[in-house]
UniProtKB/TrEMBL annotation:
<feature type="domain" description="GST N-terminal">
    <location>
        <begin position="9"/>
        <end position="87"/>
    </location>
</feature>
<dbReference type="GO" id="GO:0016740">
    <property type="term" value="F:transferase activity"/>
</dbReference>
<dbReference type="InterPro" id="IPR010987">
    <property type="entry name" value="Glutathione-S-Trfase_C-like"/>
</dbReference>
<keyword id="KW-0808">Transferase</keyword>
<dbReference type="InterPro" id="IPR004045">
    <property type="entry name" value="Glutathione_S-Trfase_N"/>
</dbReference>
<keyword id="KW-0614">Plasmid</keyword>
<dbReference type="Pfam" id="PF13417">
    <property type="entry name" value="GST_N_3"/>
</dbReference>
<dbReference type="InterPro" id="IPR036249">
    <property type="entry name" value="Thioredoxin-like_sf"/>
</dbReference>
<dbReference type="InterPro" id="IPR036282">
    <property type="entry name" value="Glutathione-S-Trfase_C_sf"/>
</dbReference>
<protein>
    <submittedName>
        <fullName>Glutathione S-transferase family protein</fullName>
    </submittedName>
</protein>
<dbReference type="InterPro" id="IPR040079">
    <property type="entry name" value="Glutathione_S-Trfase"/>
</dbReference>
<feature type="domain" description="GST C-terminal">
    <location>
        <begin position="92"/>
        <end position="209"/>
    </location>
</feature>
Length: 209
């Protein structure tokens, strides 16, 4: 007798845009093994055919049943807390504190100068770019990168297990590389190790569609 599994019901939809922070949400979903629909929003159009429901027209934006959430970290923690037993965002308060510490660092000390550097390099019109600001943000980004280290030669940022902190840290370190920041051999290997995960490949493919 053949036993058929019930069809997977997908209640989650993520509004995305290529090469954006929405990758972090899709990567989280892939790590958790949760089904989802990815919808590319026209965030750079004045009259988008597919607008993002985000209050400020940004991505990512999640609809999960009757729940709607904006902002990357809020979305990722919501998804993780639906499956609290996973190593990605464990229930143990000590382990979670270490993970949250690195996520906080990634979104403040590290991403702030990195994102401002990339804006000067890519998004600000060339005639309006400031060499002084570019130098300042690159210096601050390099200082932040220099603060990052893997404790006791652990494979991941918060210890032996791949966690939500690694999604945020590895992606932001990759952005730092795009801004011309040199990573140590340890951090290069760390980013490569994270990006070698099949879940990253699947998330990147979905995000860039």
């Amino acid at each position: 007798m053949i036993s058929l599994s019930p069809p997977t019901i997908c209640n989650s939809a993520v509004y995305t845009y290529p090469k954006s922070r929405s990758l972090r949400v899709l990567w989280t979903l892939e790590e958790l093994g949760m089904p989802y629909e990815s919808i590319k929003a026209d965030i750079l159009c004045d009259a988008p055919e597919v607008p993002s429901p985000h209050p400020r027209g940004k991505v990512p934006f999640l609809t999960d049943g009757d729940v709607s959430i904006c902002e990357t970290l809020a979305i990722c923690t919501w998804l993780c807390e639906k499956q609290p037993a996973t190593a990605l965002f464990p229930a143990d308060p000590v382990r979670r504190a270490a993970i949250n510490s690195w996520i906080s660092f990634a979104l403040t000390d590290l991403e702030s100068p990195v994102w401002n550097l990339l804006k000067q390099m890519i998004f600000v019109p060339e005639a309006q770019r400031s060499a002084a600001l570019t130098h300042y943000f690159k210096t601050e980004a390099a200082k932040a990168v220099a603060m990052v280290d893997l404790a006791d030669n652990a494979p991941w940022i918060a210890g032996d297990d791949f966690t939500l902190a690694d999604i945020f840290m590895s992606h932001t370190l990759f952005w730092a590389k795009l801004g011309g920041i040199t990573l140590s051999e340890t951090l290069e290997n760390y980013v490569n190790r994270a990006f070698s995960r099949p879940t990253f490949t699947l998330a990147q493919q979905r995000n860039n569609q």
